[in-house]
């Protein structure tokens, strides 16, 4: 079933005459083409993409089963929207309640005189389970990320700064075929690695540092995500112990990953390893998150993850230990849930690398 047809089923489920899609990510998923600005109106009979002169030519060229409609200063978006809703005879409209502001909702109500009903969770549920063609795009994005890490290992050296290493990383993501970064990379070293979401700084890499790199790219609109922690020159016994603990926790989580289990059960499998080693207080975030068109999607593998995972869900596997003021370690792969286990699509080595 095409994504557009999946979204069309929401009409019956909500008892709505039309679905109005505001968010860029759901417009992309519905039409299978990414346009920065616009609004999608979907009814039983047709799908219309309202956009402006910056994107209309690309829309006309790339959209299938979707009718592009140009709005302009002479005929602004509200006028075009009302024309479409009037043509549908829309009295009840489904919308993304977490995306549309209170101000915009008031304006829509005044403009259209319709009843509005929420449907955001329904739309997100379609994106949770990936189609085979989506998984192929995510595998390609992960291949680019793996290649970047392979090449980067020969670049890392004492004396360069975190920002310089970050620039080298981003350059290679694009060089090897990435369309964009999935998120602002985390490239940190030494005591900064105790910050799970630290920001690259002017700190100079030094012998004896851990260096954590959390990064990914987009390919075909779909995200990759990976974290590797490497050592520069040498490690202490404590550093090695923490690294080995995180690695064993990740392996335990991946071994527990299969369709039919909840995110909380998978999180617990990894968390138990860290807790049993005495580091439970230093693992504060969840074990993993879903990803796809966005880097953070649902459902998640964390202590609150009650959703039963289905085959085709894609999730990160990223336990970590963070010792304040000293160092931290995180190791992250991306896995695809299957009926009898999972497929780890991240191929970069995970044994402790000392560069």
Secondary structure elements and their pairing?
Elements: H1 3-14, E1 18-21, H2 24-31, E2 39-42, E3 47-51, H3 56-62, E4 67-70, H4 77-88, E5 92-95, H5 102-112, E6 115-118, H6 120-128, H7 132-152, H8 162-175, E7 180-181, E8 186-189, E9 210-215, E10 217-219, E11 222-223, E12 226-231, H9 237-255, H10 263-276, E13 288-290, E14 297-301, E15 314-317, E16 320-323, E17 327-330, E18 333-338, E19 341-344
Parallel strand pairs: 1-5, 3-4, 5-6
Antiparallel strand pairs: 1-2, 2-3, 7-10, 8-9, 9-12, 10-11, 13-14, 15-18, 16-17, 18-19
Helix pairs in contact: 7-8, 9-10
In short, what is this structure?
The protein is of the alpha+beta class and 355 residues long.
Overview of the structural elements:
This protein is an alpha+beta fold and 355 residues long. The chain folds into 2 domains: 3-127, Creatinase/prolidase N-terminal domain (Creatine Amidinohydrolase, Chain A, domain 1, 3-Layer(aba) Sandwich); 129-344, Creatinase/methionine aminopeptidase superfamily (Creatine Amidinohydrolase, Alpha-Beta Complex). 36% of the residues lie in helices and 22% in strands. It has helices at 3-14, 24-31, 56-62, 77-88, 102-112, 120-128, 132-152, 162-175, 237-255, 263-276; strands spanning 18-21, 39-42, 47-51, 67-70, 92-95, 115-118, 180-181, 186-189, 210-215, 217-219, 222-223, 226-231, 288-290, 297-301, 314-317, 320-323, 327-330, 333-338, 341-344. The strands form 6 sheets. A 6-stranded mixed beta sheet has the order 4-3-2-1-5-6, with helices on both faces. Strands 7-10-11 form a 3-stranded antiparallel beta sheet. Strands 8-9-12 form a 3-stranded antiparallel beta sheet, covered by helices on one side. A hairpin with a 2-residue loop joins strand 10 and strand 11. 42% of the residues are buried.
